[in-house]
Amino acid sequence: MKKNKLVVLGHTGLLGSLIYRNFKNKKRKVKGYSSNICDFRKFKSFQFSVKSSFKNSSIIFSAGKHRKYGSTKNLYLENIKIIKNLIKLCKKNKPSKIIFLSTVEVYKPKKLEHITENTKTKPINLYAKGKLYQENLLIKFCKINQIKLLILRLPGFYGPQDNNLSIISKLIFCCLNKKKFPKMTSGQEKRDYVYINDIVEIIYLLEKTNFNIDVLNIVKGSSNSINDIIEKIDRIFSKKIKFKKIQTKKNFNLNFNNYRLKKYLRDFQFVGLEQGVKKYKKIIRI
């Protein structure tokens, strides 16, 4: 099967850079564009940079303002503008596939509910509301223009290279540096955290699969409570995390099943939480 050329939008960000490097390491022909090269919010700048590189390509969209910058109206509008510019450019140079990185924050689960791709969406913040709106714009465009589209809803991910952005990295940092972690909940809430390299490899594998238009939750299908994560970190590093209590937020769980993902990648094995935490020991000097 002929391999599409690849375009990674947002190729210098945390996740985008790892995706870009992984394709490069596997000898795939790939181009990267980021806000260092062009302003995705401005159509002429975007168009001038990418020229005709979208034509017959697989586009991996990891661009836009990240959640770490907040969940503001301005960020919401900027991200929507970027998607509208992307669609406008794709009309002129039609790609073969688009893989759009979204978020599981588009769901607000009911108590004890296991989330699937069919679970009703109810974004829990403005950032997630913007992602859902972008998803819908892309679905409509790709249906009309017969472009293959995969929307990947990502959970919290972690790894030693995430610059202490993830909860797990922050907990490990506090554990090793005798810093107090701001504990805002009881710790009983459950999350399906995924090791960052798993997400990168899944994107590589999915790009090669046959799909039309689909939505996938990129999750292990097993959740851990924050308290369980804390216990594992304490044990693995033989140290105790200290806490400073902040006003407690209401707990809610995120439990998923990943049956649809398994239909695409039946044999994929996720890195378990304990394995993932132990990988920090290989990089961090203790």
Characterise this structure:
This protein is α/β, with parallel strands linked by helices. 38% of the residues lie in helices and 19% in strands. The protein is built from 9 helices and 14 strands. The chain has helices spanning 14-25, 43-50, 73-92, 126-145, 167-177, 196-207, 226-237, 259-264, 273-281, and strands at 5-9, 30-33, 57-61, 97-103, 114-115, 148-154, 157-158, 180-183, 190-191, 194-195, 213-217, 224-225, 242-245, 255-256. Strand 3, helix 3 (73-92) and strand 4 form a beta-alpha-beta unit. The relative contact order is 0.13.
Question: Keywords, please?
Answer:
UDP-galactose 4-epimerase, domain 1; 2 domains; single chain; 19% strand; alpha/beta; 286 residues; Rossmann fold; six-stranded parallel sheet; globular
Question: What is the element layout, followed by pairings?
Answer:
Blueprint: E1 5-9, H1 14-25, E2 30-33, H2 43-50, E3 57-61, H3 73-92, E4 97-103, E5 114-115, H4 126-145, E6 148-154, E7 157-158, H5 167-177, E8 180-183, E9 190-191, E10 194-195, H6 196-207, E11 213-217, E12 224-225, H7 226-237, E13 242-245, E14 255-256, H8 259-264, H9 273-281
Parallel strand pairs: 1-2, 1-3, 3-4, 4-6, 5-14, 6-11, 7-10, 8-13
Antiparallel strand pairs: 9-12
